[in-house]
Every structure is written in structure tokens, then in C-alpha cells.
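This protein record is not my work; I was only asked to verify it. Where you disagree with what is written, explain briefly why. This is what I was given:
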Amino acid sequence: MLLNGSPDCGRIATILALAGLIWAGSAPAWAADFPQKGKTIQMFVGFAAGGSTDVASRILASGMEKELGTPVVVVNKPGASSQICYTALSQAKPDGYTIGNTSFPSLLVSYTDPVRKATYNRKSFSPLALHVIDPGLFAVKADSPFKTLKDLVDAARANPKKIRVTTTGIQSDDAFAVLQLQKITGAQFAMVHFAQGSAPGMTALLGGKIEVFGGNVGDLLSQLRSGEVRVLGIMDDKQSPFCPGVKTFEEQGYKLYSSALRGFSAPAGTPTEVLEVLSEAIKRVVATEDHKKRMVDMGLTLRYMDPARFAKIWGEYEETIKELLPLTKE
């Protein structure tokens, strides 16, 4: 038996204290010196160079480079609807020197759809920040008989599967938005998928091949400014500064929210201290007037969220995708 104050008791107390320090300090010693000056941070992007996701990522990378004092280089890893990129990010060394663009719904679909056989899931990533959003919308030609969302919904109820609406793919945010609207209203649309992107869908709208363009705010700014199209509603919880005077779906009686979300994450297991450095750098960059202006120039809605808020919306969006995904198989 050991008595309080005995030499053995003191030695054991010292050992336990040291063990506690080792446990509490589970992050490697180098984490306190992150990032090492001159050591490159790679930023994976799951799309080809030149697109809006790539360009916005490069703008952010440039700002982070200044904040962190070390190179931040974009590495494009397109293919399989970004699954190649997400796989590489999830398998990267969790030391903070590899981060990646995490776009929704592409990331969520890739691991919630069993057909995709992803080797990762939500727990494979540590959220850093939400960067920008591109709210969904419905638009029609300027001379369309549909003046309001109600006009469109009523017509789709009266003529099931007759009114054609574009999407950028069967499991795109555009398609999920149409599925949500059908669920809310009972209307039925005929979806026309353009996997090549939004441009072919806009061409089809202007050419009279389809009745409704389902896309995002950043897809049609030039056509909106030229007066070729009329936006019927924005799928956000607030109106878009790029579409002045256009009401949200919610303001018109349809509680539907859909956006393409673009954030950044690190591989799971990255030390907390490192995550904090990276997320704070992103926060400082997006707060600068230069960064705000450059996002506006691109037609992107800056919507910064810290890691906790980003994680929350991640979970909410994932539940929505799980609910709607089976409908894409019908």
C-alpha cells in the first residue's frame, strides 16, 4: 500500500503528470511552427484550369500566400465529377501542406451515392471555411408567358412533364433544385440535362428549344444585363445583388434553397493548431476589399463561414442529398 507523501507516491504522480502532458500535446511539435517558410502548400481543385471554381481558388491562394508567407499553389485534378480530387485530398498527408476545394453538391453526391464507390466520407475531411456560393435560379426568355414563379408552377401542374427545364447533370445542384420544387408543389417538369455545363442550356433557352433555364446566378449575368432573359426567382435566403429586384423563392411562397457551395478542407487528422492557422488565413483574405471586389467581378457571392458553421451546413446539405438522391434513379 502507498501512502500520501511517500517517495513512491511522488514518483507515480510525476509519471502520471508527464503522461497527461504527452496525451494533451498529441499534435506533433512541428505544428507550432506551421507553416515552414518556403514550404509549398498545395491546393487541390477538382476542375480544369480556367473555370470559375479554378479562378476563384487561385485568387484565394494568392491571398493566402501573402498571409502565410509561403507558396500556395493550385493543383488541378479534374475527372469523375471531382471524385479524383476528393480521393487524393482524403488520402493526403494530414500536415496542412495539402488542402482542397470542396464543392457541394459534387462532394456530397460522390460519397452518398453507393454506385460511385467512394473511398471517403464526411469524416475524411476537416472543414476550413466556406468561401463563396452561387445561388440557384430559374430564368426564362424575356418574351416568355411565365411572368412569375406561380405562373410556371401552375402551368407545370396543369401540364405534367411538358415544361422543359435545363440542368447541368442528373446529380447537379440544378437537378436537385427541380426535384425539391416538384416535391414542394406537386408540379412535374421535364428535365433536360446538359452535362457539358450551363452554356448549352442557355443556348437552348434562347433558341426556344426549352422553356426554363435552371442554373446559377453566375451563369447568366451577361444575358440578364442584355435583357435577353428574365429571372423568376433566386434560391437563396436573401436576394442577389447581381439580380436586383428579383425575389427569392421563399419570398414567393416556396421554401426552397439551393446553391453551388465552394469551400475548402484539409484531410482528416490534420492537427487543430494547423487547421486554425489555415482557416484564419482564409478569413483574413476574404475580408479584404480587393478579394471582395474580385469575387464581385466574377459574379460570385462571397459567403464566408468559419469551420464550425461550414461543418453545420455540410451536414444539413448532406441530409438533403440523401433524401433526394433516390429520386435521381427513377
